[in-house]
Amino acid sequence: MASRLIHQRRLSDDTWRVAQTPAGLPADADALVSLADWLAHRDAWRARGGRLGVALEPADDPLALSDDLDCLALVTVNFPAFTDGRGYSTARLLRERVGYAGQLRAVGDVFKDQLFYLSRVGFDAFLLREGETADDALAALDTFSEAYQASVERPEPLFRRRLG
Amino acid sequence: MYFYDDIDQRIIDERVAQFRDQTNRYLAGRLSEEDFRPHRLQNGLYIQRHAPMLRVAIPYGVLSSRQLRMLAQVARTYDRGFGHFTTRQNMQFNWPKLEDVPQILADLATVQMHAIQTSGNCIRNTTTDHFAGVAGDELLDPRPYCELIRQWSTFHPEFAFLPRKFKIAVNGAVHDRAATRVHDIGIDLVRAADGALGYRILVGGGLGRTPLIGQVIREFLPERHLLTYLDAVLRVYNRFGRRDNKYKARIKILVKERGLAVFQAAVEEEWSHLMDGPATVVPEELARIRSRIAVHPYATLPATDAGVERMLQEDVAFRRWHQRNVFAHKVAGYACVTLSLKSTGVAPGDISADAMDAVAALADHHGFGELRVSHEQNLILPDVPVAELPTVFAAARALGLAHPNVGMITNIIACPGGDYCSLANARSIPVAQALQERFDDLDYQYDIGELDLNISGCMNACGHHHVGHIGILGVDKHGEEFYQVTIGGSQTAPAALGRVIGPSLKQDEVPDAVERMIDRYLGLRDSEVERFVDVVARVGIEPFKESVYGLKAHSSTPTV
Question: Which string of DSSP letters, residue by residue, matches B18-47?
Answer without folding.
Answer: HHHHHHHHHHTTSS-HHHHHHHHHTTTEEE
